[in-house]
Design a protein that fits this description.
This protein has 971 residues and is an alpha/beta fold. Among the domains are: 45-59 and 72-207 and 248-294, MutS, connector domain (Nucleotidyltransferase, domain 5); 648-900, P-loop containing nucleotide triphosphate hydrolases (Rossmann fold), CATH 3.40.50.300; 915-970. Helix content is 46%, strand content 14%. It has a seven-stranded mixed sheet with strand order 5-4-1-2-3-10-8. Strands 11-22-23-24-20-25-26 form a seven-stranded mixed sheet, sandwiched between helices. The longest helix has 56 residues, at 915-970. The N and C termini lie far apart (111 Å).
Length: 971
């Protein structure tokens, strides 16, 4: 416990001491004391369906229709972001009071990895939900007093089965709403930070000995204190799936002061020990502490609207960002890619190290081919390294061993052998690489402990059986025979041990007995065929051998000899049957097979213990293979699309950028567009009619930012990205019936979160805010929200039909207007529109394009004509009023000067142009600014003159009307 600092007092942690009992003694945890209702057998490595008793779906108010393109149904236990089965057993605890500090401990049932986190959240707990969405929530554990006073103390320590949402805390309500999983309440005495620290110290996988550091040409230093990159002075290696993640012994130090994370860990392990017959071997779990800092925040609604993991129309379609980028050969890499898309990186060194690695594989076809070839065995056998390692190292609390369990263990050992044997080719594929990240991957694959594991496995494997020197066939029986005969009688290093030698003799006898029983069954089949003159064949089934006979040899089932029993006519014109003698010999064969398996169990257990002693090296090798596979997938993407390596600067600049998913699955010619945002141009208004491409453009910006942040190249001619801390979107296109929210209420909720979470380092994308209410209210609300974002300096792209926003917001120097080009042609009464899908500078000419679309849609001509006249009159009145103001010209001049200042500052900070080119660039900037300033003076004079003339003409016309009126009255 020396490495775990003493837990802070309850007051310092933000809650009273009675909230979490620290315990009065240091006795070992008693699993039977855990008060949790569990009616079904539970395993931490089962699928989500195995823990269905913990899932309670809230009632849905949605009518049974399929009205919308994007589903608004409540999310299920699968995930808050995808339809994949949830795999996380999650323990959550929060502080009482104002500061919403949340401790989280999650066990991924698929991989056996444990993730700890402690974060300060908002009132909607959006960060907690995002963190839990990485695995989904299959089981939700909460303190027994995580209920409000209405629930009463009678429910403490019991499963919260039939309670309403009003009886849960806000945190549990938010999680249940997001994942559709009700809480399992555990008594508060099991949320103990000291015991949580003891669990972690006992179970965390031991670190492998540190190899010599690798120094790249830029002075980066790589050590093994963590699989995350490790030198603050140089480039990170990027092995961590996300930045801010700490593993191994470093996780002990990182979590030592995290009071609530340790408490959640204690409850999680207590639950696992109580609800399952399995336990964990010491130093066998991959435990990591993941800091909420260092990752780009993307909310679950944003994940769905951007279609990061799934297509909203077809869940099985690959037309989403994950489907586009997923060329991974291993499940570990697919899982890593999915986690990176949900939580992209923000550490610039880590991102650039990935870009370096991808670039090296793109430029070296030989290295890329070697890497992909080395991963083929893992892909062919569908080996999930993380899951396999956890299954091999899983301890069993029950002393009873079943033959089926032993057979599964043998299959796992054979899969582990394939995994370990594939590491050497992957290591050799990286020989001589220059990228710091690839060199770090090679370093983790070049481990003495991995060689020792490989030798231990080979010492108890009969290679003749695996390499085909002994012919077993390709049937199910052949596979079972391989598992029975593949183990050597003893481990080679223990040959001299008398106990082992005795065990070996018994195992050899059992195997010979098994072979003789198999031979007896084949002899019986031959004897029956000869006796009854029937071409009988043996077929192996789960219950043993059966006899097959074509129906053509006995058209009538009654013609079969009475020796045959259990005759069943199959669909393939065959009879399947048995005999009493065959059943007896089957039973003998099964008994001898079970004896072989039970005698093999001791050898397997010794081998599993050897593997567990070195499991830290295996976990790191698995993660190294995952990152290598993912980088190879990124390199393959470059060959599929015309991608460019992005630069990391303080400016968002994309030249001829393309929507990545549309570029991969084009349905028509794709038009590239430019994107620009900087300190001097942080707010961009995007105009254009419906179907011009505004929403696609916003989605394209977000997807390209995410691709660059995970380490991939992007489809563009040139791309430069800053490191954002969040991507916040508002795209509420319909009512949310599941949450009983109108479209306007949904807009307000999304906007409220954006205003509370946005920082100058955030990227905000807003699509037509305020359209769900009246024009005046929508305009006023949009203006107020825009003013807030402009003042905060948040990078914002705002698509809107409210063209007046271009005028009222144009006075800010960091606001610019752009529009999607549309060509309108009139031929008599016919109107045609050509959507160019290309963005251009300026708000664009007002051609009343919405009314033109109405004409094309078949709205009656007289209605469209009347609407167009009224719209023209309103626009003319606005222009006259605007022309009278000389202040607009002053504002325009000030804006030009401020934008020039921002551009000069940016040039000073990031320009790499030669002196001659830089001089020409500055002269061009000066000329352009001078011309723009001159235009403001000439335009102001022109507008003023025109306004005076119109006012004069209007006054003279009014005087004539009054004179005519007086003459008429006098007459």
């Amino acid at each position: 416990m020396s490495s775990i600092a003493a837990a802070p007092s309850a007051a310092a942690a933000g809650g009273p001491s009675s909230y979490i009992s620290s315990g009065s003694d240091d006795r070992a945890p008693t699993p039977t004391s855990l008060q949790v209702q569990s009616t079904a057998a539970f395993s931490p490595f089962k699928s989500a369906s195995a823990v269905g008793t913990s899932i309670r779906r809230p009632p849905s108010s949605r009518p049974a229709t399929s009205m919308s393109m994007r589903s608004n149904r409540p999310t299920t236990a699968a995930s808050a972001t995808t339809s994949q089965p949830a795999s996380g057993i999650c323990a959550v605890i929060e502080t009482r009071g104002i500061g919403r500090e949340v401790g989280i401990a999650v066990l991924d049932q698929d991989t056996g990895r444990v993730t700890l986190c402690q974060l300060a959240d908002t009132q909607t707990y959006i960060k907690t939900i995002q963190h839990l969405s990485l695995t989904g929530v299959a089981v939700l554990l909460a303190p027994g007093n995580a209920q409000n006073a209405a629930a009463g103390s009678a429910l403490l320590g019991e499963r919260f089965s039939q309670a309403t949402q009003g009886q849960n805390s806000v945190l549990l309500q938010c999680i249940e709403e997001a994942f559709g999983v009700g809480p399992t309440h555990i008594h508060r005495r099991h949320w103990n930070e000291k015991e949580g620290a003891a669990y972690i110290q006992r179970l965390i996988a031991a670190e492998q000995p540190a190899p010599a550091p690798v120094n790249d040409s830029e002075g980066a230093s790589t050590t093994t204190s963590s699989i995350k990159d490790q030198s603050s002075s140089g480039k990170n290696t990027g092995l961590g799936s996300v930045s801010g993640r700490v593993t191994g012994t470093a996780a002990l130090t990182a979590v030592s002061s995290k009071y609530y994370a340790l408490s959640a860990a204690c409850a999680l392990f207590r639950y696992l020990e109580s609800a399952d017959d399995s336990s964990f071997r010491n130093n066998s779990l991959f435990i990591e502490y993941r800091s909420p800092e260092g990752v780009l925040f993307i909310g679950s609604e944003t994940v769905r609207s951007l279609e990061l993991l799934e297509n909203n129309l077809n869940k099985k379609s690959k037309q989403c960002l994950f489907g586009l980028m997923n060329f991974c050969a291993t499940p570990m890499a697919e899982r890593l890619l999915r986690m990176n898309l949900l939580q992209p990186l923000t550490d610039r060194n880590t991102i650039e190290s990935r870009h370096d690695a991808v670039e090296e594989m793109v430029h070296s076809e030989e290295r890329y081919a070697s890497v992909t070839q080395s991963l083929k065995p893992l892909a062919q056998h569908k080996i999930d390294g993380d899951k396999l390692i956890s299954q091999v190292c899983m301890a069993e609390r029950s002393q009873l061993r079943s033959p089926a369990q032993t057979e599964t263990k043998i299959a796992n050992i054979l899969s582990l052998r394939t995994f370990v044997r594939s590491l050497r080719p992957a290591k050799h594929a990286l020989d001589g690489c220059s990228s710091g990240l690839l060199r770090a991957v090679r370093m983790f694959l070049d481990s003495d402990e991995l060689d020792e594991i490989a030798m231990a496995i080979e010492s108890c494997i009969n290679n003749d059986m695996l390499e085909g020197k002994v012919k077993l066939g390709k049937s199910g029986l052949a596979a079972r025979n391989a598992r029975l005969l593949v183990l050597c009688s003893t481990l080679q290093q223990d040959v001299d041990d008398s106990l082992q030698s005795n065990r070996s003799a018994l195992l050899d006898v059992a195997r010979e007995t098994y072979k003789e029983n198999i031979k007896d069954i084949y002899d019986l089949a031959a004897e029956l065929s000869e006796t009854h003159q029937l071409p009988l064949t043996l077929k192996y089934a789960a219950s043993g051998f059966v006899l097959d006979l074509k129906t053509e040899h006995a058209p009538n089932q009654r013609d079969l000899p009475r020796t045959f029993i259990n005759v069943v006519k199959g669909r393939t014109k065959t009879y399947t049957m048995s005999t009493i003698e065959l059943k007896k010999r089957n039973q003998k064969m099964l008994d001898s097979m079970n004896e072989v398996l039970l005698l093999s169990d001791q050898t397997i257990e010794e081998l599993r213990q050897d593997v567990t002693d070195r499991v830290g090296a295996l976990f790191k090798a698995s993660e190294a293979i995952a990152i290598l596979d993912m980088l190879a997938s990124f390199a393959h993407l470059v060959t599929v699309q015309n991608c460019v390596r992005p630069e990391l600067t303080n400016t968002l600049a994309i030249s001829n950028g393309r929507h990545p998913v549309l570029a991969r699955f084009p349905t028509q010619k794709l038009i590239g567009n430019d994107v620009y945002a900087s300190e001097g141009q942080s707010f961009t208004l995007i105009n254009g009619p419906n179907m011009s491409g505004k929403s696609t453009y916003l989605q394209q910006i977000a997807l390209l930012v995410i691709m660059a942040s995970v380490g991939s190249f992007v489809p563009a001619q040139y791309a430069s990205f800053p490191t954002y801390d969040a991507i916040l979107t508002c795209e509420c296109r319909s009512d949310n019936l599941a949450q009983q929210l109108s479209s306007f209420a949904a807009e307000m909720r999304a906007t409220s979160f954006i205003l509370s979470a946005a920082t100058p380092r955030s990227l905000v994308l807003i699509d037509e805010l305020g359209r769900a209410t009246s024009t005046s209210e929508g305009f006023g609300f949009s203006y107020a929200v825009a003013e807030h974002l402009i003042g905060s300096g948040t990078t914002t792209f705002w698509a809107t039909h409210l063209t007046d926003l271009n005028v009222v917001l144009g006075q800010h120097f960091n606001v610019c207007s752009k529009t999607f080009q549309v060509d309108v042609a009139k031929r008599g009464q016919q109107v045609s529109m050509d959507f160019r899908h290309r963005i251009v500078e300026g708000p664009g000419a007002n051609h009343h394009l919405g009314l033109q679309l109405a004409r094309l849609a078949g709205v009656p001509k007289d209605v469209c004509d009347t609407a167009e006249k009224l719209a023209a009159k309103l626009r003319e009145a606005e222009e006259r009023q605007r022309a009278k103001s000389k202040a607009s010209a002053v504002v325009q001049r000030r804006k030009i000067i401020l934008q020039l200042d921002a551009l000069l500052r940016q040039t000073l900070e990031s320009s790499r142009l030669p002196a001659k080119d830089l001089r020409e660039f500055l002269i061009r900037l000066q000329d352009e600014a001078t011309d723009e300033l001159y235009e403001t003076y000439s335009e102001a004079d022109t507008r003023s003159t025109r306004a005076n003339e119109e006012e004069k003409d209007g006054g003279e016309g009014k005087e004539r009307e009054e004179e005519e009126k007086m003459e008429t009255e006098s007459g």
